[in-house]
From TrEMBL, chains A, B:
PROSITE patterns: ACT, ASPARTOKINASE. Its EC number is 2.7.2.4. Belongs to the aspartokinase family. This is Aspartokinase. NCBIfam families: asp_kin_monofn, asp_kinases, PRK06635.1-2, PRK06635.1-4. InterPro entries: AceGlu_kinase-like_sf, ACT-like_dom_sf, ACT_Aspartokinase, ACT_dom, AKii-LysC-BS, Asp/Glu/Uridylate_kinase, Asp_kin_monofn, Asp_kinase. Pfam families: AA_kinase, ACT, ACT_9. Gene3D superfamilies: Acetylglutamate kinase-like (3.40.1160.10), VC0802-like (3.30.2130.10). One of its GO terms (molecular function) is aspartate kinase activity. Keywords: Amino-acid biosynthesis, ATP-binding, Kinase, Lysine biosynthesis, Nucleotide-binding, Transferase. It comes from Thiomicrorhabdus heinhorstiae. PANTHER family: ASPARTATE KINASE, ASPARTOKINASE.
C-alpha cells in the first residue's frame, strides 16, 4: 500500500464525462489498496470565462479579488469529482486550499506555498476516503484567498506529496511522458522511463513543456518522486527522480537523456567595442533594465584593443534590444550593431556528461558532418547548447538523435 | 452617518452591467457618508447551472459537496462587485462566509446561523471600505462549507445587520415595496411606507411573497429595521419594524395594513363523527403523519351526539388527505367525507385590530353586501381570515380594499 498524490489538469476535468474518467482512474488505484489524494485544476475554459468577466469591469482587476474569483474554478471541480467518486462507491471528501490549509505568503496571483498542514488529509485517507484538493490556491497569513500563479496546480500536488511524505506524485497531462526529443521533429523519439530532476529542469526550460519548472524544482528540493503520465492513455509515463535513486535502478545509464531545442531565439552583436573593464556590464545593464532576459553570452577579444560581444534574447525582444544596443554603441564608440533572428538553440541534456568526456566532440563532429555551422556554444554540468542557423534545426536534431542512439 | 447592510439578489447581479448598477447604488450611500456592508446572491442562472452539473453525476448529490459547489456562485459575485466598486473609486473588500466568519450548525444545504463575528467587517468599514459579503453561506463547527437554504441571502443580510448593530437592513428586490394587496387584483393598491414585523409575517405567509419568512422572523427577533425596496427603480420602499417604533413614527395608525389572499386552498369535511374526547386528534393525527399541513380548523357540534369537522389544506394535498380521511371515517363510523377545492382564503392584517373592535363586523358586512357567503372564519390577534367561493376572490378583495379605504 502506498500513498499517492495525483494531479489532473483543466483538460482532464474539462467536462462531466472527463471528470467521471478521472474518478475511474482514481478508483483503480484505490482498488489496488493505495491511499489517494487528488489535486485538480479548474475545468478548462473556466478560468478564461471568469477572467473575461473581471476584465469587463477592470482593465487590471484588483489582485486580491481576482484570487477570490478564480479560486471558484477549482472549488467547482473538487465538488464534482468528489460526487463522481461517491457515485461509484468510493467515499471522498473535498478540501479547498484554506480548508487543508495550504498556507502561502500574501502575494496575490503568484503566492508561494509556505506550509501545508497534512493532518486533516491523513486522517481522511486513514479512514479510507479519497481526498480531493483544490489546486492552485491557498490562504495568506491574513486569511485572504491566494493563488499560486501559472502551473500552480502542479505545485500544489508536489507540495502536498512532500507534506504528506507520499510515495509518488503523479502529474496527469495530455502527453504520456517525457521524450528524448520532440516526436514531431524526430519520429523515432522515445519516451524516457526515468530522468533526473536536473535533466528535467534543463529540458523543461528549453522548451519541452511538459511540467512547470517550479514544480520540478519543488520536487527536487523535497525529493518527491514525480511521474508524468497521460490522463487519456494507459502507460507508466516518465518517472522524475533524484540522481541517486536513478543510479540504484539503472546499472547502465545513458549518457544523454534528451535533446531540447528552441526556435524562440535571436542573436545580437556589438562589434569593435573599446575593451575596458566593465564593458560587459555597460552593454548588458541597459538590456536587463528593460526586463529583457539574456541567455547565451560570448565575448571575443580582437587584436586592435577592441572586443566583439554576442548574446541571445527571446525573439519578441530583439527589436527593443537592438535599439538599446544601438544607443550603447554610440556611447561606447563601438563600430557596429547587428541582429539575427534566424537562429535556433539546440541543447543536449544528460547527467552522464558529468562522468563522460567526448560528448561535446561527438556533437560537434556530427554537426560538422552535416555541414552545419556552430555560431555559439554554451555548457553547464549536464548540458551542451549550440546556436545554429534556423533552417538546419530538423537536420541537426535528427542527426544528433541518431548519433547518440536515443532511439535504442 | 449610519451603518447600512444591503442585500442584492441574483437578478440584481445577473450580469456585469447590473453588477455595475449595484455598485452605483452602493456608491450613492457611501457618498452620503454612510458605512455600507453588502450581502449578495449568486448571479441569476448560476445556481441552476451548477446544480445541473451535479445532477448529471449524482441523482441526489452529496450534500456536503453540494454546498462546496453552490457557494462558488456568491464567491464570484463578491469578487466582481468589489472590482466594480474599486473601478468607480470606492475601496472595497470581499468576504466569503468562512472569512467573516458566519458560523452555522453542520446541517448541509439548510444550515442555521449560530454566530457572526463582526470584528473584521467593522474594522474594514471603519477604514472607509465597502465590505461585500457572500450571502447564503457559512462555515460549520468542523470547518466545512455550509449553505443556509432557500432565502439564505436575505437571512445573511439580516443576521449581519443584527451582529453589526446596523441602523438598517435594506433588501433590494424586483418589487418596490410591500403593497396593501396584490396590484394585479386591485389596481389602486398602495405601497405601504411602514409595516410591523408581525403584519409582514402574516402577509408573507399568506402569499405576498416579497421576503422570506425566515428573514423577517430573524429581523423581528433582533429588532433590525428592515426595508424592502427595488433594485431597479428609485423610492423609499417599505420599512418593516417593530410595533413600538411604528407607534413613535405614526400618530394615526391605519387599522388595516393589507389584504392577503391565497388560491392554494382546499376544504375537507368529515360529517357525523361520534363526538367523543380525542376525536380531533384521531382525525388530524393521520393527516399530520402524512406531512400534510392543516391550516384552518372548525368543529361544529351537532344535536344527535355527533360532530362535523372541517379543515383546509393546500390544494396539492387534497387527494391524499381525502383518502386518509375516508379511512378515518370508516374507523370512527362517521357519516360522510366531502372535499372542495374551489375555495380561497382572504386575510385582513393589521396591528390596529388589537385596539379596535368592529373590524370583523365591517368585513362581514362588506362581503354580505356583495352576496358573498363566508364558509369559514379564523382569527389571530392581528388577522381575520375568511374562506369563500373561489369565483368571488377579486370582488371580495376589491370591496374590502374600498371599504377600509386602503387606497387613501
Amino acid at each position: 500500500m502506498a500513498l499517492i498524490v495525483q494531479k489532473y489538469g483543466g483538460t482532464s476535468v474539462g467536462n462531466i464525462e472527463r471528470i467521471q474518467n478521472v474518478a475511474n482512474k482514481v478508483a483503480k488505484y484505490a482498488d489496488d489498496g493505495h491511499q489517494v489524494v487528488v489535486a485538480v485544476s479548474a475545468m478548462s475554459g473556466e478560468t478564461n470565462r471568469l477572467t473575461a468577466m473581471a476584465k469587463e469591469i477592470q482593465d487590471r482587476p484588483n489582485k486580491r479579488e481576482m484570487d477570490v474569483l478564480l479560486t471558484t474554478g477549482e472549488q467547482v471541480t473538487i465538488a464534482l469529482l468528489s460526487m463522481a467518486l461517491e457515485a461509484k462507491g468510493y467515499p471522498a471528501v473535498s478540501y479547498t486550499g484554506w480548508q487543508v490549509p495550504i498556507k502561502t505568503n500574501e502575494v496575490h496571483t503568484k503566492a508561494r506555498i509556505e506550509r501545508i498542514d497534512g493532518t486533516k488529509i491523513l486522517q481522511q485517507v486513514g479512514q479510507g476516503k479519497v481526498v480531493v484538493v483544490a489546486g492552485f490556491q491557498g490562504i495568506s497569513p491574513d486569511g485572504d484567498i491566494t493563488t499560486l500563479g501559472r502551473g500552480g496546480s502542479d505545485t500544489t500536488a508536489v507540495a502536498l506529496a512532500a507534506a504528506l511524505n507520499a510515495d509518488e506524485c503523479q502529474i496527469y497531462t495530455d502527453v504520456d511522458g517525457v521524450y528524448t526529443t520532440d516526436p514531431r521533429v524526430v519520429p523515432q523519439a522515445k519516451r524516457l522511463d526515468t530522468i533526473t530532476y536536473d535533466e528535467m529542469l534543463e529540458l523543461a526550460s528549453l522548451g519541452a513543456k511538459v511540467l512547470q519548472i517550479r514544480s520540478v524544482e519543488f520536487a527536487s528540493k523535497y525529493n518527491v518522486p514525480l511521474r508524468v503520465l497521460s490522463s487519456m492513455q494507459e502507460g507508466g509515463g516518465t518517472l522524475i527522480t533524484s540522481e541517486d535513486k536513478f543510479k540504484d535502478n539503472e546499472m547502465e545509464k545513458p549518457l544523454i537523456s534528451g535533446i531540447a531545442f528552441s526556435r524562440d531565439e535571436a542573436k545580437l552583436m556589438i562589434l569593435g567595442v573599446p575593451d575596458k573593464p566593465g564593458v560587459a556590464f555597460q552593454i548588458l545593464g541597459p538590456i536587463s533594465d528593460a526586463n529583457i532576459e539574456v541567455d547565451m553570452i560570448i565575448q571575443n577579444q580582437g587584436v586592435d584593443g577592441t572586443t566583439d560581444f554576442t548574446f541571445t534574447v527571446s525573439r519578441n525582444d530583439v527589436d527593443t534590444a537592438f535599439e538599446i544596443l544601438q544607443a550603447t554603441a554610440d556611447k561606447l564608440g563601438a563600430r557596429e550593431v547587428l541582429s539575427d533572428d534566424t537562429i535556433v538553440k539546440i541543447s543536449m541534456v544528460g547527467v552522464g556528461m558529468k562522468s563522460h568526456s567526448g560528448i561535446a566532440s561527438t556533437m560537434f563532429k556530427t554537426l560538422a558532418d552535416q555541414n552545419i555551422n556552430i555560431q555559439m556554444i554554451g555548457t553547464t554540468e549536464i548540458k551542451i547548447s549550440v546556436v545554429i542557423e534556423e533552417s538546419f534545426l530538423e537536420l541537426a536534431v535528427q542527426s544528433l538523435h541518431d548519433a547518440f542512439e536515443l532511439d535504442k
